[in-house]
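Researcher: I'd like a structural prediction for the single chain below. Treat it as a standalone chain; there are no partners to consider.
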Amino acid sequence: MNKIRAKEILEARHQGLSMNEIAKTLHVSKHSVSAVCSRAAAKELTPQRIGAMSDNEIYILLLCYISFKVITIHFAPFADVLALSVYRIIVMLFYLS
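Model: Treating it as a single chain, here is the predicted structure.
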C-alpha cells in the first residue's frame, strides 16, 4: 500500500489545480485528493504552515489516527500537537536504536 503524498496534493491545490487535475497529475485517486483537501481545510492548514512541515508530519496530521481516548476528550484542541509529538518521539527512538 502506497502512502498518500499529502504535501504534494496540498501544494498543487494551493497552486490552483482542481482535484481532478491533481489526481491525474500525481496518479492518485480522486477520493484521496478529496480526503486530504477536506481534512486540511478542517485543520485550517495554510500554505506557510504546510511549507514548514515535513511530508511525514502532514501525513500524520491528516491521515493517521492515534487513539488517546481520555486525552482527546479533555484536550481536543491539543490532539494535533500531541500526535506530532508522539511521531517525533517515535522517529527519534528509531534513529537512536
